[in-house]
């Protein structure tokens, strides 16, 4: 497990100490509290704290008192209605705080979602560990020929091994130089805030990331999608499993309407209606761009 002894001791102490509370709790989320879920080769996700449950969403929507005034089936129907019609504020009543350990280049993608509170481990004050993300062989792929942001065929044999060797050697060499610049043996030693600039983007960083459920669902819709980069997608998939246990009714609606749903532009909806009416619609007659037509055909054939 990619945890330091201090972190393991902190988790053990936190899980061993129980306290009575009057606030609403989720039994599913309680089981995840402080548990470190491994991701990639040295990464992790663990829940530090949370607020709310499925009933909190319904309570906010109805502005009622206590743990809801309707049956569970009514709550599920209300949550599905809220999700289906893109209501957001009731889902903002639930929040979660994660501790995440991730490669720097993944963190730079992740931070693009500017709807969370983030506090990152500071390499100005502390020295980063010698831990780097090295892809598994089945994740080494060439540049896609149809998607400028994606991967194509896997690298194999000698070429794959050459790439892995370069990644390891460059990361280790950069860290050796990092340590050498920081060293005060026979020299003043470079300031940590400057020495860090030489570290590669695959070194691991850590942060606390706190987000409400509405914005977390938006993050997961984009990052758990099969089009997302693998390295951030595996974090999102781990979070999906946690959220499913936390708010099962809300997650079921999210899975149905967002992860499993399809959004159509006006032109795409019109093309689908024409197809259903028996017309043979082609790219040239669809009015869509080539990219949109390709995505339309991936879903509808």
Automatic annotation (TrEMBL):
A Pfam family reported for this protein in Swiss-Prot or TrEMBL: Thy1
Residue numbers binding dUMP: 109-112, 120-124, 196, 223
Enzyme class: transferase
Binding sites annotated in the UniProt record for FAD: 89, 112-114, 120, 212-214, 218
GO terms of molecular function: flavin adenine dinucleotide binding; NADPH binding; thymidylate synthase (FAD) activity; thymidylate synthase activity
Coiled coil regions, renumbered to chain: none
GO terms, biological process: dTMP biosynthetic process; dTTP biosynthetic process; methylation
PANTHER family per record: FLAVIN-DEPENDENT THYMIDYLATE SYNTHASE
Function per UniProt: Catalyzes the reductive methylation of 2'-deoxyuridine-5'-monophosphate (dUMP) to 2'-deoxythymidine-5'-monophosphate (dTMP) while utilizing 5,10-methylenetetrahydrofolate (mTHF) as the methyl donor, and NADPH and FADH(2) as the reductant.
Identification of the protein by name: Flavin-dependent thymidylate synthase
């Amino acid at each position: 497990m990619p945890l330091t002894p201090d972190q393991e001791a902190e988790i053990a102490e936190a899980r061993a100490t129980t306290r009575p509370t009057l606030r609403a709790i989720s039994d599913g989320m309680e089981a995840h509290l402080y548990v470190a879920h491994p991701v990639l080769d040295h990464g992790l996700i663990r829940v530090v704290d949370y607020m709310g449950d499925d009933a909190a969403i319904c309570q906010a929507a109805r502005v009622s008192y206590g743990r809801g005034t309707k049956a569970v089936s009514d709550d599920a129907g209300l949550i599905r209605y809220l999700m289906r019609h893109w209501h957001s504020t009731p889902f903002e009543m639930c929040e979660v705080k994660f501790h995440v350990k991730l490669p720097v280049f993944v963190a730079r993608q992740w931070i693009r979602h500017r709807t969370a509170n983030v506090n990152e481990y500071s390499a100005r004050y502390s020295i980063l560990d010698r831990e780097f993300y090295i892809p598994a062989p089945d994740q080494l792929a060439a540049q896609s020929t149809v998607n400028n942001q994606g991967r194509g065929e896997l690298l194999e044999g000698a070429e794959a091994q050459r790439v892995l060797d370069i990644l390891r050697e460059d990361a280790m060499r950069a860290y050796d130089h990092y340590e050498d610049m920081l060293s005060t043996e026979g020299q003043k030693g470079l300031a940590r805030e400057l020495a860090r600039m030489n570290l590669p983007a695959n070194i691991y960083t850590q942060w606390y990331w706190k987000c409400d459920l509405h914005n977390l669902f938006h993050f997961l819709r984009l990052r758990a999608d099969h089009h997302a980069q693998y390295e951030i997608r595996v974090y999102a998939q781990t979070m999906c499993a946690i959220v499913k246990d936390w708010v099962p009714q809300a997650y079921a609606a999210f899975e149905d309407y967002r992860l499993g749903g399809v959004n159509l532009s006006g032109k795409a909806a019109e093309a689908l209606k024409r197809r259903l009416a028996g017309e043979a619609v082609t790219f040239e007659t669809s009015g869509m761009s080539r990219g949109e037509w390709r995505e339309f055909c991936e879903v509808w054939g």
